[in-house]
Design brief:
single chain; 216 residues; alpha/beta; 8 strands; globular
Length: 216
């Protein structure tokens, strides 16, 4: 299992120790949630913070844009050090074009589905994306309870990927802990995003290791 701890749950007053912890941990990526207060009811990181984080983080930046018109910001996301730019299906009018432009900018491209958005809508885009992020909570805030219908959606997405011959990875974000992580791994998830479970622990490296070593 790959693990992408969410910086949204880190100590905003002093991010450096938390990023250094990520560097020394078994984490595969660092998940950065960019929120604009419009698409979701919260505001988080901007590009200057992302760029500063990229200078000290040794893990690839897994950037999740919870914003309106995300395709307007492709060059800024790239210049902020992103390895992957992930945009919401619900926020992007011309998704095919946006995915192509993300790739042209030199980044991996991902698409995110809100809990109420069906997997079937990805049929015409699944072969073009590198990753699909399934939200297992409503986006905007950390610490929400896990939405169990996500397990069904993972099975549906795994079938779509197999039938289409896509190489897309399945990432899940929201309510991830050891218990839900076991279920998500068995359902077919490739990457788990965890915020409160990791950064709210007295031993975050141990929590990352627990998720990292989950078996399908």
């Amino acid at each position: 299992m790959k693990v992408s701890p969410s910086l949204l749950s880190a100590n905003f007053a002093n991010l450096t120790p938390d990023i250094e912890m990520i560097n020394s941990s078994e984490a595969d990526y660092l998940h950065i949630d960019v929120m604009d207060g419009v698409f979701v009811p919260n505001i988080s990181f901007g590009f200057p913070v992302m760029k500063a984080v990229s200078k000290i983080c040794k893990k690839p930046l897994d950037v999740h844009l919870m914003i309106v018109e995300p395709d307007k910001w492709i060059s800024q996301v790239r210049d902020s050090g992103a390895w992957l730019m992930n945009i919401h299906y619900e926020a992007c009018t011309h998704l095919n074009s946006a995915i192509a432009r993300i790739h042209q900018a030199g980044m991996k491209a991902g698409v995110t589905l809100n809990p109420s958005t069906p997997v079937s809508l990805l049929t015409d885009i699944i072969n073009d994306v590198d990753l699909v992020l399934l939200m297992s909570v409503n986006p905007g805030f950390g610490g929400q309870p896990f939405i169990r219908n996500t397990l069904k959606k993972i099975h549906e997405l795994r079938s779509l990927i197999a039938e289409s011959g896509s190489n897309a990875l399945i990432e899940v974000d929201g309510g991830v802990n050891e218990s839900t992580g076991i279920e998500l791994a068995k359902a077919g998830a490739d990457i788990l995003v965890a915020g409160s479970y990791v950064f709210g622990s007295s031993d975050p490296c141990e929590k990352i290791s627990i998720l990292k070593n989950l078996d399908r």
